[in-house]
Amino acid sequence: EPDGQARIIGDPQWPAADLLPGFEAFIKAHIQKRVGITHALASGFALSLGLEKGYFGASHRYHGGTCLLNYYPSLTPDQMARTQWSNSPHSDYGSFTLLSQDTLGGLQVRNAAGDWIGVPPVPDSFVVNIGELFAVWTNYLYTPSLHRAINVTGKARVSVPYFVNAQGDTIVQCLETCQGPDNPPLFAPVTAGDHTRGLVKQSFRTGRP
User: What does pTM read for this prediction?
Assistant: First the structure.
């Protein structure tokens, strides 16, 4: 995000170059490719909502992006507690997420019937999760994807999510194309930064996302 504007995310942290030679340059190049996909998706979402293609341009040109490397050691099924997961059920906080997963699987999403279904890995593709912020924008026309991960494969699993959040100063409120006399806005206007910080603080208080 540009200097002088509200930041949702802190400054990047990189391991020393002598510990992981080439790591920082490789990941930065990888993130730039995801930034390009983010811009294309933002345009597609705008068109799907009856808006101009560039509607989300200002809010996502310099978006808050977080790229994580998730490592999931395998769990033993007969030793798992009822509420033990590799990653507990949650929805993402921002606009949307680009997730790449390895070939092992283990990602599950809850469908409209309330059932947990597997999300099998598809080579050369991303899983796209809708986040809570986009639900505010679209009045829950786009619903956050409740998901979890359970790795019982006997091997370590790796996933790489890229969390996309609107630039922190962005005022997020129900879009005109997502409301009407029988469908009033569900949420008050909020800045993207305040929205995300509020969810993070809530997770700290409760110990759950």
Answer: 0.90
